[in-house]
Amino acid sequence: MSTPRVGILMGSESDLPAMRLCGEVLDEYGIGWEIAVMSAHRAPDAVRSYARQAERRGLQVLVAGAGAAAHLPGVLAALTPLPVIGVPLGGTPLAGFDALLSIVQMPPGVPVATVAVGEMGARNAGHLAARILALTDAGVAAAVQARRQQMSGRVQLPEGFDLAGDDGR
Ligand code: RP5
């Protein structure tokens, strides 16, 4: 695997089934990543140390998934200037709504780009990280463009319908 540019973190090993999907998406773009389990509550010293070294280690985006009282993405955003994408995870009695509110309601100045709850969000975290990296990497930008074209090619039109027939009215 190439040098990690994205750090994928999660609060518990129980988050792995969802968060590994983020890595799968990054693989599709050819983006190197690393993965780690460290809870903001259970291992705050490890989280602090990882966040403080992240930029120096060459990481460019952090993706953090957590469930319940999900503080990992916010704590990372407080400790590093890198963009942080937060993935609220379900599996709790509140089915991820708790994690969604915990992650999305960051105070101004400490942003966390919050995606959807669960596997859908974990995948989109990978796509969003790719779009961030595409701003300064022509290879990733080309991969993002190719992916967009692939998606728009998936429409199924009724027989005889001409997309070019749209005159804007
Ligand atoms: C959070 O609590 C983790 O991110 C996980 O989603 C949830 C439950 O953790 P475990 O009890 O499964 O370790 O901190």
Explained architecture:
- It contains 6 helices and 5 strands.
- It has 169 residues and is an alpha/beta fold.
- Strands 2-1-3-4-5 form a 5-stranded parallel β-sheet, sandwiched between helices.
- Helix 2 packs across helix 3 (72-79).
- Bound molecules: 5-O-phosphono-beta-D-ribofuranose (RP5).
- Residues 10-12, 14-15, 39, 66-68, 89 line the site of 5-O-phosphono-beta-D-ribofuranose.
- 5-O-phosphono-beta-D-ribofuranose (RP5) is lined by residues 10-12, 14-15, 39, 66-68, 89.
Brief digest:
By secondary structure, the chain is an alpha/beta fold. The protein has helices spanning 16-29, 44-54, 72-79, 97-104, 119-134, 138-152; strands at 6-10, 33-37, 61-67, 84-89, 113-114.
Topology:
Elements: E1 6-10, H1 16-29, E2 33-37, H2 44-54, E3 61-67, H3 72-79, E4 84-89, H4 97-104, E5 113-114, H5 119-134, H6 138-152
Parallel strand pairs: 1-2, 1-3, 3-4, 4-5
Helix pairs in contact: 1-5, 2-3, 5-6
The chain binds 5-O-phosphono-beta-D-ribofuranose.
Question: What descriptive keywords fit this protein?
Answer:
169 residues
The ordered string of helix (H) and strand (E) elements is: EHEHEHEHEHH
Shape type: globular
Characterize the main sheet: 5 strands, parallel
| Largest sheet strand order | 2-1-3-4-5
Bin the helical content. Answer: 40-55%
Task: Kindly report how far apart the N and C termini lie.
Answer: 50 Å
**Low-confidence stretches at least 5 residues in length (pLDDT < 50)?**
none
What hetero molecules are bound to the protein chains? 5-O-phosphono-beta-D-ribofuranose
Taking all residues together, what is the mean pLDDT?
Answer: 97
